[in-house]
């Protein structure tokens, strides 16, 4: 089937996306070919546009299409508070909640001796610079509640101690969560941080 | 975040692929942007190429990049045997097994009164024409072992009865299958079709 190489190559590339394997990549490609007009052609064009225009915000590390991302450029957002997140997906998750009205700082990962990811790779010096330059009064450490995330949070807290108010996200029972399905650590955290009614 | 519309639009389109939801589409797009050179740019180009060149084989309904697909054009493949499949994914699955050396006929679905899919929509008249024109001696009905698939197989068998030898795929225990996990129907079929050692 020498003639099918472009379609085969497309399947191979699609299978490299997270969440897709060889089988689902084949299904996706057949779906794309079946929906050529409404889906495949616009998708190809949009991918090219994003490939040409997407870039990291020079200030916070968010992904946008300009040197300074819309959040950093939005002067209605509070400048005195920086929310530190591991990656852009976490920033988007925070934005979907619609609660936070300050700025962000995207680390791009967590500290890891094993993968030789040190403070420089995570733009932690740039965070320290921003705290001084933007007259920041509070840094919220919204890192994942994993060992790596918490190690990184401790390191950043050490760097910034005494310069700004530091806080981290509350730990406890998630909304809609059932106690029976929660791990012991979460229940312990929720109990220790219990609030008077 | 008005500036993020291209990336947002890309996420929305990706979420329309089978097997991807909003969350995995966001992950996929972030992965694409992170791997812009090795993945996003070639994927955009390849999608455009496939959008421009992919077409249905005029003879069998397979997808390729020419009017006649490589299988129909390959004169080393037997012309006397046609394997009837529901869709192109099934044809690819048959080809991966590497066993069948004849030609195919892709129906593009199954008969369905509910969705008003009749014989014309499934290219069944074209199959009947091919049986006469290509001097076919055997038609293998490789339709899915579902109610719709079997209804369609019966209809085709009625149309072709007396003109060619008709066969269908054997039913039984799949290779590596454990009896305890098989449904009753499969065990019954395997028992009824038991073979002497």
Please give the structural blueprint:
The structure is a homodimer of 197-residue chains.
Chain A: H1 5-14, H2 22-34, H3 36-53, E1 55-56, E2 63-64, H4 70-73, E3 81-85, H5 88-97, E4 103-106, H6 124-133, E5 138-141, H7 147-160, E6 165-168, H8 184-192
Parallel strand pairs in A: 3-4, 3-5, 5-6
Antiparallel strand pairs in A: 1-2
Helix pairs in contact in A: 1-2
Protein name (chains A, B): Recombination protein RecR
InterPro entries (chains A, B): DNA_Rcmb_RecR, Rcmb_RecR, Rcmb_RecR_Znf, TOPRIM_dom, TOPRIM_RecR
Keywords (chains A, B): DNA damage, DNA recombination, DNA repair, Metal-binding, Zinc, Zinc-finger
Summarize the structure.
Chains A, B: GO terms for molecular function: DNA binding; zinc ion binding. Chains A, B: InterPro entries: DNA_Rcmb_RecR, Rcmb_RecR, Rcmb_RecR_Znf, TOPRIM_dom, TOPRIM_RecR. The structure is a homodimer of 197-residue chains. Chain A is built from eight helices and six strands.
Distance between the termini of chain A: 70 Å
CATH architectural arrangement of the largest domain in chain A: 3-Layer(aba) Sandwich
Q: Give the oligomeric state.
A: homodimer
CA-based gyration radius of chain A: 21 Å
| Percent of sequence in beta strands of chain A | 5-15%
Count of helical stretches of chain A:
8
Principal-axes geometry of chain A comes out as globular
Please report the first level of CATH classification, the CATH class of the largest domain in chain A: Alpha Beta
Q: Tally the structural domains of chain A.
A: 2
At the third CATH level, what is the topology name of the largest domain in chain A?
Dna Topoisomerase Vi A Subunit, Chain: A, domain 2
User: Pair with the most extensive interface?
Assistant: A-B, 53 and 53 residues
Q: If strands are numbered along the chain, what order do they take across the biggest sheet of chain A? A: 4-3-5-6
| Model regions low in confidence, pLDDT < 50 over at least 5 residues of chain A | none
Secondary structure tally: strands of chain A: 6
Please tell me the overall pLDDT of chain A: 91
Structural class call of chain A reads alpha/beta
Helix content of chain A: 40-55%
Order of helices and strands of chain A: HHHEEHEHEHEHEH
* Largest sheet data of chain A: 4 strands, parallel
């Amino acid at each position: 089937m020498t003639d099918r190489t472009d379609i085969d190559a497309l399947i191979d590339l699609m299978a490299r996306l997270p969440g897709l394997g060889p089988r689902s990549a084949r299904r996706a490609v057949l779906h794309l070919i079946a929906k050529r007009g409404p889906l495949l052609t616009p998708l190809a064009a949009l991918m090219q546009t994003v490939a040409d225009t997407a870039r990291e915000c020079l200030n916070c590390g968010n992904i946008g299409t300009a040197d300074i991302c819309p959040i950093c450029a939005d002067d209605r957002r509070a400048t005195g508070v920086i929310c530190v997140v591991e990656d852009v997906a976490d920033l988007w998750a925070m934005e979907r909640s619609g609660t936070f009205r300050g700025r962000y700082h995207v680390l791009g990962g967590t500290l890891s001796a094993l993968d030789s990811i040190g403070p420089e790779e995570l733009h932690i010096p740039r965070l320290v610079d921003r705290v001084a330059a933007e007259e920041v009064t509070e840094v919220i450490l919204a890192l994942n509640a994993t060992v790596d995330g918490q190690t990184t949070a401790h390191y950043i807290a050490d760097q910034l101690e005494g310069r700004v108010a530091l806080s981290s996200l509350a730990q406890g029972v998630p909304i809609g969560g059932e106690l029976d399905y929660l791990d012991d650590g979460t229940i312990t955290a929720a109990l220790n941080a219990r609030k008077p009614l």
